[in-house]
Amino acid sequence: MLKLLKPAAPRAAAAAGRTNRSARIEATTRAARAVPSAGVGASIVLLQSNSLPGLVQRELERMILAGDIVPGSKLNEALLAKALGVSRGPVREAFRALEESGLVRLEKNRGVYVRQIPIEEADDIYELRAVLDDFVGRRVAATASPEAVRALRGDVARMEKAAARNDVDTYLTANLDFHDRLVTLAGNAKLLLTYRRLANELRLFRRATLAQGDTLAVSTREHREIVDQIAAGKVAGAGRALYDHVMASRARMHRLYSANDKPPAPRATRAAIDK
Fold first, then answer.
1. Are 85 and 74 a contacting pair, CB within 8 Å?
2. Which CATH superfamily includes the segment(s) 119-260?
């Protein structure tokens, strides 16, 4: 059943949330089914890029990463399908895609659960990301075009605006876009696939660490330095700036754990899908 953690939201609000989720999927589905003026070929591309399982996957991913569905929650296929206004098939396909991306785990004869990443595993992920980011920084600094640098600066500008408002969620989105753009610019498809999975797994931690004190301002400065190194074509400097940034994020995670003596708790008013 769909449960709310205390303090519980009114039933009308919960119903409105389900309605809004269904409306988002329905609206995007209608857009995907519309035949564009570019012709049948473009229509097929649009349908392929906006498949119903893909829409469900993105909505579930958004709910997990926003904290609407908390780590450790069991996902009920039938109830989610009803809440999202779709059949069970697209939900089942979305579960498989979310498992591949590292956000859920499928347990035989038990069901599907939102992943809980222990701090020891997060440590391993941060260390691996630091090594990969060093490579990415070096590669991009050696090859980035002026247009690529402008795009990266645009991501940093979005972070700066979000930091000024102390808007952690918007900041996290811009942050993730920045790093995804960097890895894409590195031009290694296998690396991009691996990196995105690692980034997804760490996203279950990142919001809590970014919410600490002046972390947004510090993190923004680190990103600005990364772009400055890339823009100047400083290969070793860009790699080192990215490596240091990832390890600083790891240190912030440990400071949060030390302060709380436990993993970051989910936000109290968010919904969880249980059996």
1. no
2. GntR ligand-binding domain-like (1.20.120.530)
